[in-house]
């Protein structure tokens, strides 16, 4: 019985503390960042990094853990953005209420399309999700009465706090990153649970997972819904920050950029998501500065060259992404176990104790 | 229907395209029995296990568990009903630690749903700890306790097989299907495996053992079903089967003469 | 509800078939690569863009039309081979999902390079044989559309002759049927993969050049065309060339009628809806067949 107590105590500490420490550190970093962040431009960049991080965290759950590719994640982002925009601008709903409603609607749509779409695998799944994204884009452009067509929908109300609209970038920054932290906590909780283990099992071998009683299609579907809700919330945060929305939010390019962000951090690493997102955003900004100096065509979205090359290079040389790749390499290389069981074992051996192992015969 | 029959295979037939992989095979397994399914390569043993486990649906015939047909039940439902299995290629989850593999095996005992997991409620945390200890118990049961935190991919092949068994046991099966558990094991590992499988009947687990190693089969099996080219060639006690001329013929071909 | 005359329908039909012919060329590119290498090359559309852009540039450098077109096709063929060598070959054992991302990455990198070289300005390629549109049964038909259909037909015939009647073509086909046994019988499967990339890049370049006079050439024209070609290929089940031809033509006509009779904006939506339906329908069909067998 003492053994039981010891192990579970150590286990609880070992397992959740690493992540808890990470969350606290990130919160401290985010909290103090504006103090030494000079320009308003940098602050608004951080807002966008936060918004996209929420999407990529969900995308990591879907692609890295459940192993299901999505080239249509911008569709859910756009559904959240337009849902929020239309409900608050056309129907005068409170932006917060609109945001919740949009998330529910988006989750519902994900649940409905998930059933047919997860019959597809590999290439076909990629193209199916891409087609879904393209259809949402067409709707955003063509359903002019509500979406404002290709010129977009202006005049969207801001989110409010205690009755007053949030106007300053500083407040919005804290708001967005509050959501990022929540998303991170939720995703980490999911990953380190029965649910998350089932997802990783599915990614490794659907057959073996099913043989242990895991309902593979249900788990995939629920993960899609979670990732769609994350994207939707991010979309709503985006609209109410920009107070404008256009079909660019539903473009394939955005989906690809989101996949790239997830891939840079490592699909199979929740922590990688915000870092990958920040990396790609900063790269984009850097290139926007540099490229016009070397080309004669003035400005343009030249960073897509770097996106493309980066995506290819990562897939060829580091398919696990920068963060997850490094961590895995470390885990694989470590010669002795650092977990609680091995630790207890070693300690007992050193002290010359005999260990009565739980579950052994006669116990 | 005999009250002691836990699983019955009734006239099962399975085709891959034009190839008849399992042809009209029937047998029954009694509670706590160890039944061995043997036959030359390509006889259809794995295919039959897949039909029983619900991975493949048979073209004809059915599998009954305690008198109820399993037709139309998907694999994960059958796991819930008490059919566990291991695979010919072990199929451990390579990206997980050894212990986590077994924790996945405990899936059916868990209550945690998506919402509980996301919020990490106290009862979820408690369940995690229980599952952790439970998994450790199963790991110790197969003798891999000290390896708990290693990556499963780093285990030698023989131990991956043991891990796959521990994982299957963690799902608390009443019938366990083992596909060539002794393949690739050395002598010592084999005798440990035989010991392990013997202990399963103490835990009231019925086993269906697919195995090429006759020594292992003869030590464990109480009943043997022989397949050849998808057909049931013979069945009986180990002694009957050993003496059956048709079996000798199928195994040794024309060399006996 | 406006009234349409028979001639309107003929007009829509013919323009649908001519656009469909472009989709056919691109779809055949998809299929060639897919069958030999197992990769769905999302950069296919970028080859179309490169073909058209290079032809425009070469014409601008003073080359006459025919040499400009031929050089452009040859260059794009080389680009195809190089793409395979640099991006697919090093990752040929990677999982399917990684390969998709690689081709996607290639696509956007090439599109970005197009932007870098040619900017966002649309370029025009003159019609092959300028002149007044032809009148057929009351329908007005630009001469370029005849060219599109004609060239597509010629390419189809060449392709057929190559795959059915030359040793090299047969070797490529052997690889697509069974890579392992083709290798055993002495076919260099890596060379065949390179070749398949070359062929389909070249075909796409032809598609780009023939459609350019009708649509103008922009750095981002490849995305849409590539996806349409993919839809056509998938409508044909991804393996059979005749089915892809049918798929391309059906898609072209479907789009043309949607644009003509409803509004042009939703024609893309219809195409992607078709993709969605075909994809999902395919798996239903497969699983039903599996259950029956
Ligand atoms: N997925 C499949 N598709 C087509 N044919 C298959 C498939 N799986 C197995 N077969 C064929 O079915 C027959 C039975 O195969 P099965 O794997 O059940 O044999 P087995 O008795 O398990 O053999 P082994 O001892 O080699 O494991 C073989 O002829 C095999 O080639
Ligand atoms: Mg087998």
Distance between the termini of chain A: 12 Å
Shape of chain B: globular
Strand percent estimate of chain B: 15-25%
Characterize the biggest β-sheet of chain B. 6 strands, mixed
Radius of gyration of chain B: 19 Å
Radius of gyration of chain A: 23 Å
Total tally of structural domains of chain B: 2
The main sheet of chain B orders its strands as 6-7-8-3-9-10
Count of DSSP H/I helices of chain A: 15
Structural class of chain A: mainly alpha
Shape of chain A: globular
Whole-number average pLDDT of chain A?
83
Work out the largest interface and the residue count of each chain: A-B, 48 and 59 residues
Spell the H/E element sequence of chain A: HHHHHHEEEHHHHEHHHHH
The CATH class assignment of the largest domain in chain B is Alpha Beta
SS summary, helix count of chain B: 10
Instruction: Return residue spans of chain A where pLDDT drops below 50 for at least 5 consecutive residues.
Output: 357-363
Summarize the amount of helix of chain A as a percent range. Answer: over 70%
Features:
heterotrimer; A: 363 residues; mainly alpha; ABC transporter involved in vitamin B12 uptake, BtuC; two-stranded antiparallel sheet; two-stranded antiparallel ribbon; 2% strand; globular; disordered C terminus; C: 293 residues; 2 strands; 77% helix; binds adenosine-5'-triphosphate; binds magnesium ion
């Amino acid at each position: 019985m003492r053994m039981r107590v010891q192990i579970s105590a150590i286990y609880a500490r070992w397992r959740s503390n690493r992540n808890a420490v990470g969350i606290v550190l990130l919160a401290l970093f985010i909290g103090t960042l504006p103090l030494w962040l000079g320009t308003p431009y940098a602050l608004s960049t951080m807002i966008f990094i936060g918004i996209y991080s929420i999407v990529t965290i969900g995308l990591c759950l879907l692609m890295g853990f459940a192993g299901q590719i999505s080239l249509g994640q911008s569709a859910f982002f756009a559904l959240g953005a337009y849902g929020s925009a239309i409900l608050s601008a056309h129907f005068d709903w409170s932006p917060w209420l609109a945001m919740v409603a949009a998330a529910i609607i988006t989750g519902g749509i994900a649940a409905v399309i998930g059933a047919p779409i997860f019959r597809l695998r590999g290439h076909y799944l990629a193209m199916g999700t891409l087609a879904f994204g393209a259809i949402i884009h067409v709707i955003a452009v063509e359903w002019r009465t509500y979406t404002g067509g290709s010129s977009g929908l202006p005049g969207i109300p801001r989110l409010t706090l205690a009755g007053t609209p949030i106007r300053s970038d500083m407040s919005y920054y804290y708001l967005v990153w509050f959501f990022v932290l929540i998303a991170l906590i939720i995703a980490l909780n999911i990953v380190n649970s029965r649910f998350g283990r089932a997802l990783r099992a599915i990614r490794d071998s659907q057959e073996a997972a099913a043989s242990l009683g895991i309902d593979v299609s249900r788990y995939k579907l629920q993960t899609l819904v979670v990732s769609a809700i994350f994207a939707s919330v991010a979309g709503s945060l985006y609209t109410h920050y920009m107070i404008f929305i256009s079909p660019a939010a539903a473009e394939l390019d955005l989906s690809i950029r989101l996949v790239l962000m997830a891939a840079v951090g490592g699909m199979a690493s929740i922590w990688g998501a915000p870092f990958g997102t920040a990396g790609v955003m900063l790269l984009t900004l850097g290139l926007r500065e540099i490229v016009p100096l070397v080309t004669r065509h003035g400005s343009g979205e030249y960073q897509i060259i770097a996106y493309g090359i980066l995506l290819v290079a990562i897939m060829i040389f580091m398919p696990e992404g920068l963060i997850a790749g490094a961590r895995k390499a470390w885990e694989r290389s470590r010669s002795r176990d650092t977990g609680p069981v091995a630790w207890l074992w070693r300690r007992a051996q050193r002290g010359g104790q005999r260990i009565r192992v739980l579950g052994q015969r006669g116990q | 229907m005999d009250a002691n029959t836990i699983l019955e295979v009734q006239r099962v037939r399975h085709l891959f395209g034009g190839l008849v992989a399992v042809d009209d095979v029937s047998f029954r397994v009694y509670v706590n029995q160890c039944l061995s399914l043997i036959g030359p390569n390509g006889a259809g043993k794995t295919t039959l296990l897949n039909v029983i486990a619900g991975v493949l649906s048979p073209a004809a015939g059915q599998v009954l568990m305690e008198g109820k047909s399993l037709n139309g039940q998907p694999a994960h439902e059958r796991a819930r009903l008490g059919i566990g299995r291991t695979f010919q290629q072990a199929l451990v989850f390579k990206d997980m630690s050894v212990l986590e593999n077994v924790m996945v095996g405990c899936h059916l005992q868990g209550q945690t749903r998506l919402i509980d997991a996301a919020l990490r409620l106290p009862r979820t945390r408690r369940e995690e700890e229980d599952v952790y200890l439970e998994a450790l118990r199963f790991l110790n049961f197969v003798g891999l306790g000290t390896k708990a935190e290693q990556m499963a991919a780093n285990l030698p092949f023989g131990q991956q097989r043991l891990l796959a068994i521990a994982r299957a046991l963690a799902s608390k099966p009443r019938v366990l299907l083992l596909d060539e558990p002794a393949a690739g094991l050395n002598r010592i590992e084999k005798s440990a495996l035989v010991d392990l499988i013997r202990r399963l009947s103490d835990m009231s687990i019925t086993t269906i053992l697919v195995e090429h190693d006759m020594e292992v089969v003869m030590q464990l099996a109480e009943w043997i079903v022989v397949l050849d080219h998808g057909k049931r060639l013979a069945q009986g006690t180990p002694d009957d089967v050993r003496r059956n001329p048709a079996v000798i013929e199928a195994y040794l071909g024309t060399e006996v003469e | 509800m406006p009234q349409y005359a028979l001639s309107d329908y003929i007009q829509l039909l013919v323009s649908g078939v001519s656009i469909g012919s472009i989709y056919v060329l691109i779809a055949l590119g998809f299929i060639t690569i897919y069958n030999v290498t197992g990769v769905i090359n999302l950069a296919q559309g970028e080859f179309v863009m490169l073909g058209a852009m290079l032809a425009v540039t070469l014409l601008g450098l003073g080359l006459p039309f025919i040499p400009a077109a031929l050089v452009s096709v040859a260059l794009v063929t080389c680009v195809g081979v190089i793409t395979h060598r640099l991006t697919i070959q090093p990752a040929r054992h990677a999982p399917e999902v990684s390969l998709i991302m690689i081709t996607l990455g290639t696509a956007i990198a090439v599109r970005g390079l197009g932007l870098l070289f040619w900017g966002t300005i649309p370029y025009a390629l003159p019609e092959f044989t300028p002149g007044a549109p032809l009148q057929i049964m009351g329908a007005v038909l630009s001469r370029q559309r005849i060219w599109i259909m004609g060239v597509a037909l010629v390419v189809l015939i060449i392709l057929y002759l190559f795959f059915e009647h030359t040793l090299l073509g047969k070797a490529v086909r052997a690889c697509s049927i069974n890579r392992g046994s083709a290798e055993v019988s002495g076919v260099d499967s890596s060379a065949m993969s390179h070749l398949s990339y070359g062929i389909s890049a070249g075909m796409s370049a032809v598609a780009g050049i023939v459609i350019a006079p009708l649509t103008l050439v922009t750095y981002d024209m490849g995305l849409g065309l590539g996806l349409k070609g993919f839809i056509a290929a998938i409508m044909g089940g991804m393996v059979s060339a005749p089915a892809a031809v049918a798929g391309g033509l059906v898609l072209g006509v479907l789009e043309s009628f949607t644009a003509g009779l409803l509004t042009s904006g939703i024609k893309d939506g219809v195409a992607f809806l078709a993709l969605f339906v075909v994809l999902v329908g395919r798996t239903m069909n497969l699983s039903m067949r599996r259950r029956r067998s």
